[in-house]
Every structure is written in C-alpha cells, then in structure tokens.
Amino acid sequence: MNAVAKETTTTDRIKIRPTYLILGSGSFGFALAKELRELDKDLIIVDKDAQKVETLRDEAYEAIVGDVGDPALLDRINTKNLSGILILSSDTQANKAALENVRKKVSRDVYCVARATDVINMQEMESMGADLVIMPPRMVAKSLSRSLERAEGLRRGNKMAQWFESIRNKKMAIMVHNNPDPDAIASALALKAIANSHDIRSDIIYHGEIGHQENKAFVNLLGIDLYRYDDIEITSYDKIAMVDCSGPGANNPLPTNTHIGIIIDHHPITDSEIDAEFIDIRPNVGASSTIVTKYLQELNIDIDSKLATALLYGIRTDTMDFKRNTDSADLSAASYLYPLSDHDILDQLERPSMSIETLDVLGEAINNRQVIGSYLLSNVGSIRDRDTLPQAADYLLNLEGISTTVVFGVSEDKIFISGRSNDIRINLGDIMKRAFGEEAGGGHANAAAARIDLGVFSAAKDRQTLLRLVNEAVVKRFLTAVGVEEDDL
Ligand SMILES: [Mn+2]
C-alpha cells in the first residue's frame, strides 16, 4: 500500500522515536496497533515472522523482525521516548523473557503491559514488574457482558416506550399495594413521570393507610398526591398500571379479573398466571424504585429532585439501607440518584443516628466503590470528620458478597484508612500493618485502621493528582498485602 515505507532502510526505521513498542503482532497486537494509530500514536511493532512484518510495512506500520524474548532486541530500538511497552505475543515464555529484559534495560517509568494466558503466569508477571497483566479472553468476556446488559436495558426501554406511546392522551390509574410504603409510592411517581412525557394523565391510587410516621413524613415532605381507592371510580380510567405488587387482588383491592396494562414489581412471584400487556418483575432486585430508575434513564426522562429523593428513599427503605436483598443494580441506581436528591429532605427522613456528613461519605463510598472479589475498597476523597470512615466501612460490610471493606479519605496532611471484615480467615489488623507499615496501621482481626502522612505524595502537582496517587497507592498496597491481584477474581 505504501511504497515509501517499504523502501525505507532498516537503519532509518531504528532511528525513529516511537511512543509505543508492541512486541508480538498476532491478531491482538495488530488490533491494538490499529487503535493506537487511530489515536495518532507513534509506534513500532516487533514480530518474529518476516512475512508478517512485510505485510505490516505494506500497511505503513513501522515494523521489524525480531524475537520478542531476545535480550539483544531492545538494543536495536530507541527506547528513550517510549511511554509504553506492550508485550502481547501468544507465547507466555517469550513474554516473560521480554518482560525481564524490559525491566533490566528500560526506565521504570515506561508503562509495561504483558499478556498472560493463565492466572499463575499473571501473578508471576506482576511480581516481575509488569504494571498491568492482561488476559484477553477475560477482557473480551467482561466487555461483552457489559454490552449485553446495556442492550437488554435498551430493549426493555424501547418496549416500554412503545407501550406508553400506544396509549398517548389517555388516562391511567397507577395502583400501589395496600398500605403503601415509600418504594411503592416512589415507583408510582416515576411511572407518572413516564406517563407525563407521553401526554398521559395519571393518578396514583392506594387502599388502606399510609402508616408509620416516616411514610407520612415521606408523602408530606415531598408533596405527593395520592387518591384513595374508595374515592375514585377505577373504571373511569383507560388503563391500569400496578407497581410494587404483582397483579390484581394481590395485596390490593382490584378484582382479580381486572385487565392490567403494566406491572412492575420485585417481589418473588407466587402466582404463575400473571397477565398484563407489559410485565417487568425482577425478584433479584431490592426495590421497584431501582427498576423504574433504569427506565427513566433509558427513556431519557428528567428526574427532578423530588422524584430522585423519593426513589432513593424507596430503595434505601426497601433494602434496609442496602443490608437486605441488595443487588448491584440497587447500588448503581442509588449512586445515580444520590447527586440529584434533596439532601435536606433526606436528612429529615433519616433516622437521627446518621449525620448528613456520614450520608455524604457513604454516598461517596458507594459511588467510588471498587469491588474485587469479596473485597470492597472505596476512596471518599477529602473528609472533614474521619469518624465517618469506620461508619461507612461498617455499613458497606452489609452488602451481599462483601466480606471485607476498606474506606479511605484525605484530611489535611494525612490519609485515613478504615477497614472492616467478617472473613474469619483474615486478620485485618495484621494486613493493615503489612500494607501500610508497622507504625501506620493496626487494630483487630475484624476492625482496623491506618494513617499515612501525605508527605510521601508531596510531589503531586495538584490536589486532583494527589488524590489519584493516594487512591492507586492504597488500593495496590492493600491488595498486595492480602495477596489478591485486581484481575484475579
Ligand atoms: Mn418494594
């Protein structure tokens, strides 16, 4: 394709100053080279197959023939301006040899990525000094499952939009269960917003009482309009929607043969014959509010602070503050709603034991959580009151599948780290010492803490960089101390 590149002599090629060096150009290395070139990066590719190198040159890539693991290879390349070396051949032994050479001959601040075929080699390469070890099939699987989840959400959203479109300009009743709780009312409010966006008039209808002080406060503080079933004529509505209950007659006053337009619920299904035009029942999710939040997102509907507050409170009460039946979807919905919510109202709805600052820190902790297997680490950034850290660590320990939590933040001149664990196999106090030093860390087997002087990071050019460096250091040191690699699980 490019005759000029082909005619350039080998000596010329060695003189160039690439930003990236790719060792091994199988399908993976080549795909990455293409990506990097699109980003306008200078790169040079090494492959042992002369034929392949010729083809790469035809496509105007800088490429040389060489053995990935050859100790003399790096002498042929100007590595001074490299920002990254990517060791990507499919031969693990060759990759290891290459990694060893790189760490011997190239400056430590050149970012080095190595490819492994299994976890054992992955760990070995990490200890040999690779900054990142990757296993391509695992990366592909992860990214694919994320795409599938997105596609599924999109499809559901489209279907719901179609359903609402089919009843444009009509009048809809939104039925909640008897003696409705915040989750039921908040979900109804969300459905009302979706109906509104399709010019559908809707009323939220309940039967029984709005019991409990908190539920009354919830309705009053947010100014939610609800109608009593006995005060309306259900047959005057064109369509009936049901939220937080699974069908007519199930904990609601509707006659069992009532035709239902839409059902959204998260309770385990007891009746096998649920009939409606649109049904979305997800028993694995902690709250109906979580399900409707996803629809609001998919359908691009504005969530005002009243709706966000209601939904967040709905999720929190139904999951008992993420302690019961909590799914990752509940947490992602909560962290999405959190910044949109009215924190003054939430504060008034809160049990008095939780201060607004603790809630802020908990919100940050949920937002920034990094889950590696059963470990949850979270950086909450700058903190005023470090007592909020153990409370947040305590709280997050209640999440399903989590047995150890580490929450950390920066206050003036120190990093404060707080950990909790209910894993009987580990001693958190010892781990904190191993990770952050005898002097800095300590505590008990199931509750421990550490503090590190920020002086170590004083070279950081601004606060943003500082917080990022702190995050990287704390996560890396902790995971190393417990013997877990980030991609290990
Ligand atoms: Mn519910």
UniProtKB/TrEMBL annotation:
Pfam families listed in its UniProt record: DHH, DHHA1, TrkA_N
Cross-referenced PROSITE patterns: RCK_N (PS51201)
InterPro entries (UniProt xref): DDH_dom, DHH_sf, DHHA1_dom, NAD(P)-bd_dom_sf, Oligoribo/pAp-PDE_c-di-AMP_PDE, RCK_N
Coiled-coil region list: none
MF-aspect GO terms: nucleic acid binding
Positions of the RCK N-terminal domain: 17-135
GO terms classed as biological process: potassium ion transport
Protein's name according to its UniProt entry: Potassium transporter TrkA
Source organism (scientific name): Methanolobus chelungpuianus
Taxonomy of the source species: Archaea, Methanobacteriati, Methanobacteriota, Stenosarchaea group, Methanomicrobia
